[in-house]
Design brief:
heterodimer, A: mainly alpha, 5 helices, extended, B: 2 domains
Chain lengths: 115, 237
């Protein structure tokens, strides 16, 4: 792993990543003004956010047993996220809600460890 | 060209508000970036290269994924193809924000470059009229948190992540809050239901490109629904 290899690989990765991010800006404006694209713009962000949440949760090695650590982790994550949304709904405090989320996750995992 | 014409073509930025809006992202980026810095060290990637990745690549999942590829010395073309596949979902990110991009070319180029999952999420949660003044500051501050965290990760090792377990869960919490804000804006459940259906369908097709395929299915379902509604409306009239 030489310096020149690292620089060349990083440059190549940066180039392809920028290309993916800049693609919509390279398309003609006429295409961007179409009604179907506006509908897509309206609904896609919430779908993507939902996907980002769902794919961030742990599904590997689940079994229907209360002592299964993977099920416990998933349950703790879901409970923590519900509490995050509840706290945010009531307080509108982003940072407080996120701290509550991490604390709940760790607290739930500690509780599950007692089972 | 008059001074007024030039002024009209410039976007003014709200750096103070941008900094505040970037703080929740910092809570997620700091542990994740520190973890990246630590993992880069473990993979034998020097700290300068880890910092270079965070400055010029700036893509969380791709940066984690490239570490084993770099340390095993894979051909650059192979690495670039894999990274393109991981980041292909970003093709869909800039479209909702194109109207909010700064007028200055350098700023627009940077904002497109720095459009990560988190920056996209924060920006699309803001009212449209606030976005142009905030997109550059938020993008810049978000990347700054990521670069600082990478440097910290390289320097302090894994001590912080050991101190607070599951600190990276902050990013998932952030996604949930931003989804709540999105829902509050559009007040519709169907994008959430479509995402669930898309994820199930995508997981039956692939595991490696799950997010990319799921986003593509979401796009298809949203367009299909729009076409059906348009057809029903036309029939009623």
């Amino acid at each position: 792993m030489t310096s020149s290899y690292l620089i060349a690989a990083t440059t190549a990765m940066a180039f392809v990543t920028f290309l993916t991010r800049a693609t919509p800006a390279l398309l003609p404006q006429k295409l961007l003004d179409t009604p179907w694209l506006h509908r897509l713009n309206e609904s896609l962000p919430l779908s993507v956010l939902t996907l980002l949440i769902l794919t961030s949760l742990s599904y590997q090695g689940l079994t229907l047993s209360l002592t299964n650590p993977n099920l416990q982790l998933l349950a703790a994550q879901v409970i923590a996220l519900i509490l995050v949304l509840l706290v945010y709904h009531l307080s509108r405090q982003l940072l407080v809600s996120m701290v509550v989320g991490i604390a709940t996750l760790n607290g739930m995992l500690w509780l599950f460890s007692l089972i | 060209m008059s001074v007024n014409t030039v002024a009209l073509k410039q976007t003014k930025f709200d750096w103070s508000a941008g900094f505040k809006k970037s703080l929740p992202v910092a809570m997620g980026y700091l542990p994740a970036g520190i973890a990246f810095g630590v993992l880069a060290q473990v993979a034998g990637v020097p700290i300068w290269a880890a910092l270079l990745l965070s400055v010029v690549l700036y893509a969380g999942a791709a940066q984690y994924a490239c570490l084993p590829m770099l340390s095993s010395g894979l051909p650059i073309g192979t690495i670039a193809t894999n990274i393109a596949a991981i980041n292909l979902r970003h093709v869909f990110y800039a479209t909702p924000l194109l109207q909010s991009m700064p007028k200055q070319k350098w700023a627009k180029t940077y904002c497109l470059f720095a459009l990560t999952d988190e920056t996209f999420s924060v920006m699309t949660s803001l009212p449209s009229d606030e976005r142009p003044a905030l997109i550059l500051p938020i993008s810049l501050f978000n990347q700054s948190w990521w670069v600082i965290a990478t440097a910290l990760g390289g320097l302090i090792g894994s001590a912080l992540n050991d101190l607070v377990p599951h600190l990276d869960f902050a990013l998932v919490c952030l996604f949930a809050i931003l989804a709540y804000e999105q829902f509050a804006t559009i007040k519709r459940y169907f994008p959430i239901i479509i995402a669930m259906i898309a994820l199930i369908l995508a997981s039956l097709m692939t595991q490696n490109w799950l997010l990319l395929v799921a986003i593509a299915i979401c796009m298809g379902l949203i367009l299909l629904r729009s076409a059906l509604i348009a057809k029903v409306d036309a029939h009623d009239q």
